[in-house]
Amino acid sequence: MDTSLHLYARCGRADVARIQLQHGANTEIRDAQGLTPLLLAARYNQLQVLQLLLQHGARTDAFAPLDTDFGHGGELGTCLHFAAESGHVQILKFLVTAAALDPDERTCGSQEITALHLAAWLGRADVVRFLVARAEVDINARDAHGMTALHHACDYPNASSFNSPPQYLFDAAKTLVDHGAYSGMSWWFHKVKVLLSKPLWTRPGRHNWKIRRDSSIWETELVNELEAVNSVGNLTKHHEAALHAACRSKKFRRLRDVLKGQGDIWVNSRVSTGDNVGWTALHIAASSGWQAGVTLLIAHGANVELTTTENEEHGTTAVHLAAQNGHSSIVLALLDAGADVNACDDFSDTPLLRALRHGRSRIVQLLLCYGAQCNFQTESGSQIGSFDPRSTSALHLAAFFGLLSVVQELAETSKSLFAIDAVDDDGGTPLWLAAAMGHLDVVAFLAQQGANTHHHVAGASASKCAAEFGHLEVVEYISTSSPGQVNGWRSLTRLAVQDKTQFRRKSM
Fold first, then answer.
1. Among 288, 353, 463, 504, which has the minimal tally of Cβ within 10 Å of its Cβ?
2. Are 334 and 322 in contact (CB under 8 A)?
3. Which residues of 93-102 are buried (b: 16+ CB within 10 A; e: fewer)?
4. Distances (CA, A) of 426 to 141, 298, 355, 467, 503
C-alpha cells in the first residue's frame, strides 16, 4: 500500500522522510505498483531522499516492474535500472560510485538486460555516455536474446516508447560506436539508415512492435558511409516538414511534440519545396497570426531576424509578414523578442511601410511607438510605390509621406469627399495618417477640403495620435480649427505633460 514515506520519496521531501525514518519507518514497504520508497526516489530523481534511505539501510537489490515493455514479458529491475530507465544520470552516478553497485547488474526476467541495454533502447544518450566511460562496464554485453546495447539502440522500429525521438537513438548508437561497441560498421550503417528513414509520426502501432527481427539481419550487406549520412538528412527533412505542417495547420500539440527534445536544431529550417520556399516556421506562424505558435517557436530559439531569402541583409522578416496582415499581437511578440523594427525587405520597405501599403493603420501606429523610422528622399510620388488597392489608396500613402503636391493632385482629381475620408483596412483616413506623422501642411489642406478632423481609429482620434508622437502643432491646428470638439486637448502644456507620461512609449 502507499504510505507517507512513498509520497515523500516521490516529492523529494527529505526533511520529513528523515523524521519518519528516525521513528522506525519501514524502508522496504511497497506501494500498489510494488515499488519501495528507494525505487520511487530513483525514478523521480530525488537524490537526497535516495541517499537518506540508503543511510537507513534500504535494500538496493529490491526488484520491481519496469515501465519499459520489451515484448517478451515484464522485466523486474533494481534502483539502478530505474535510474537508467528514467534518464537520471546523477542518481545513477551515485549508485555506481558512492553505493558501489555493479553497473552490469541484470534485470530479472526473460530479457536479462543491463542498465546500458535499457538506456540504449530508450535513447538515453546521457546515461549511455556515463556508463560507457566506466572501465568496468561491458559495452558489448549481450542479453538473454543475444542483443548488445548497440543492437537495442538500432532497433528503433520495434521500440516500445513513444517518447524516444529517432535522433536520441542515433545519438546513443553513435556514442556506443565511438567507445568501441562492436558493430561491423556495415550493419550499423544499414540499421541506422532503416531506423531514420521513417518520420516519427508514421511509426507503426505499439501492437506491431513486438514482432522482433531475426538477429541475422544485423550481419547484412555493407552500406557505405555516405548513405548513412544521407539517412540523417532524411530525418532532418522529415522533422522540418512536420514543423512547417504544424504551423500551417496551427496544431499546437503537434508543434510542441516536434519541438521536444532536439527540436531547436530544426526550428530555423526553411521550406524547400512548394509554396513559400525559404520561409521558416516563424514566418508561417507570424503570417497567419498564430500567437501560440509564435510564442512557442521563440521559446525554442526561433531567430526573429531571419528573412525569407538566404540574403539576410535584405528580405522579408516575420515582422514584415505580421505587419502587412495586421496581426498586432504577433508584431509585439516579435519586437519584444528583439526583432529589428526597421528591417528592410527586397524593395527597401520596412515593416512600417509594409503595414501602410496594406492599409494597417493600427500597426503603423504601433510600429511608430516602437521607434520605426521612415526616411523620405524626394517630394514626389515615386515614394508611394506599390500598394494593395483593396486595402488602402494612393491618397493614404501620400498623406503619410507628407507629399503635399501629390495629395493636392489626387484630391483635385477625385473631387469626392468620400475619397478624402476613405478608410483603409484598419479604418484610418488620409488625414489621420498625416496627423500621426506630423505633416501639418497636409492636415491643413485635407481639413480645408472638408476631411473629418475628428475621425477615430481604435479609439484614438487624429489629435490624440498626433499628441502621442509629439506633433503639438498638429494638435493645436485641429483644436483651433474646430473649437469645442477636442475635449480639453487645447492646452499645449497639458499635451506636453501627457506626451511624456501617458502617450509616448519607449522605443525598443
1. 504
2. yes
3. bbbbeeeebe
4. 69, 27, 10, 20, 20
- Whole-number Å distance between alpha carbons of 304 and 318: 7
In the beta sheet, which residues pair with residue 457?
A: 460
Cell output for 356: 501602410
Dump pLDDT digits (tens) for 4-46. Answer: 899 889 989 999 899 999 989 999 999 988 999 999 999 999 9
Q: Are strands 76-77 and 456-457 parallel, antiparallel or unpaired?
A: unpaired
CA distance 419 to 423: 9
Find, among 430, 447, 433, 428, the residue nearest to 485 by Cα.
447
Residue 460 pairs in a beta bridge with 457
pLDDT of amino acid 187: 46
Q: CB burial class (10 A; 0-12, 13-18, 19+) of residue 174?
A: middle
Condensed to tens digits (0 to 9), the pLDDT of residues 235-277 reads: 446 667 788 888 999 988 888 888 876 566 778 888 877 777 8
pLDDT band at 345 (very low <50, low <70, confident <90, very high): confident
Residue-range domains of the chain with CATH: 60-223 (1.25.40.20), 235-369 (1.25.40.20), 381-503 (1.25.40.20)
Residues 308 and 310: their CA atoms lie apart, in Å, by: 7
C-alpha to C-alpha distance for 315 and 289, rounded to whole angstroms = 20
